[in-house]
Amino acid sequence: SVDRLVNFRLFLLAAALALGTGARAQDAPDRGGLMLQWAGGSHALRTTLGWETPVLWTYREADGSGRIELTGEFGVSYWNARRGLQPASLWQLNAIPMLRWWPEGGRFFVEGGIGPTLVSRTEFAGRAISTAFQFGDHLGVGYQFTPAVRASLRLSHFSNADIKQPNPGFTFLQLSLTYLY
Question: 43, 62, 79, 100: which could form a disulfide with 125 (CB 3.0–4.6 Å)?
Fold first, then answer.
C-alpha cells in the first residue's frame, strides 16, 4: 500500500541521516555506486535501480571555492499508475549524464542532467506518449552523509521533446539514495 511505501522511504531517509559522520564532499570517493530512486507524480509512482559511474570529469575552481563533477547514471525503472489508470505499468531504461556542483568543498551539492530514456510502451496511465524514446531532465539538491552515502531530492521530467505529438510528459519528485563503493 502507499502508506507502507511512504513509511519505508522515511525509514531509509532516517537511516541515511543516522549514518552522517561529518564527511565533506572532498572525502567522497571518485568511485561509482549503486542507486535506489523513488519518485511520485500526479499520475504515477516510479522506482529505479541504477548504477552511477565513477567521476568522468572534474573542474576545480582555482580559489578552492568549489568543484563541478560529471558522472553517468544508468538505470532500470518501473512505473506504476495511480488511481487505477490504465495501462497501469511500464518499464524504462535510462542513461543520464549528471553534473554536480559542490560549493566550497562542503557536503551539499546541486545537480542536473538531461539524457535519453526508453520506455516499454507508448501509452501509460490513460495518456498516449507517442514515442518509446523519451528525454529525462533532472534538477536537484543533495547531501553527502558519509564518504559512502549520498542522498538527493530531484524534480524529474520525462517527455519526447515534441518529436511527435501528443507529448504529455510526466513530472516526478524523486528521492535518490546512492551507496558509493
Answer: 43
Contact indicator for 24, 106 with CB cutoff of 8 Å: yes
How much is the pLDDT for 11?
52
Q: Which tens digits make up the pLDDT trace of 50-80? A: 999 999 999 998 888 899 999 999 999 999 9
What are the angstrom distances between the C-alpha of 15 and each of 97, 135, 164?
Answer: 28, 32, 43
Taking residue 162's Cβ as centre, other Cβ atoms within 10 Å add up to: 10
CA distances from 6 to 2, 9, 14, 38, 39 (A): 6, 5, 12, 10, 11
Cell of residue 118, nine digits? 526508453
pLDDT at 9: 53
CA distance 131 to 133: 5
Residue 18 scores a pLDDT above 70: no
Distance CA 105, CA 37 (A): 25
**Other residues' Cβ atoms within 10 Å of the Cβ of residue 146:** 17
Residue 93 has pLDDT above 80, yes or no: yes
Residue 119 neighbours by CB under 8 Å, 6+ apart: 79, 90, 91, 92, 129, 132, 134, 158
Given a contact cutoff of 8 angstroms between Cβ atoms, the answer to whether 118 and 126 are in contact is no
Region of 63 please: left (phi>0), alpha (psi -120 to 50) or beta: alpha
